[in-house]
Amino acid sequence: MSPTQSGAKPYYYVPQPSYWPITGSAALLLMATGAASWFNAYAFGPWLVLAGFVILLTMFGPWLVLAGFVILLTMMFGWFGTVIAESEHRLYNKKVDLSFRWGMSWFIFSEVMFFGAFFGALFYVRNMSVPDLGGLDAKLLWPDYIPAWPTNGPYSKDPFTPMSAIGIP
Length: 169
Description:
Blueprint: H1 20-44, E1 47-50, E2 53-56, H2 57-88, H3 94-133, H4 136-141
Antiparallel strand pairs: 1-2
């Protein structure tokens, strides 16, 4: 970033526009296209006409995934290198350092909250909701129902047979 007209460093460093986000987006698009082509090659046959081009899916799918992964790794090394170079050139001041620290703190906090909610919901489903399902209502409506995890559904005759994929007995 260029200094202000007086030659003093600015209050907060604003980096120059970067091409790394576009590079990362292109890499993810390549990986997704390659994976979709690779997985769907068996459903549509080996050839697919896409926008006027005949593409041999079984041949190019894995290579697109590999190319996207290599570009993604290059993007990560380049972007992190740019941030490290900005730090080594002393372009960051205390305000930017504080901003980085708060950003990482909020990120870690959000991850802790996400996994806390995820495992809390799993605990609720396994330990609280299943016994509630086996209450008096279930005894009146389905006398043979035994509340257990994983549930087999109220109409299950065999306790070792899970319910069907769509949940309808």
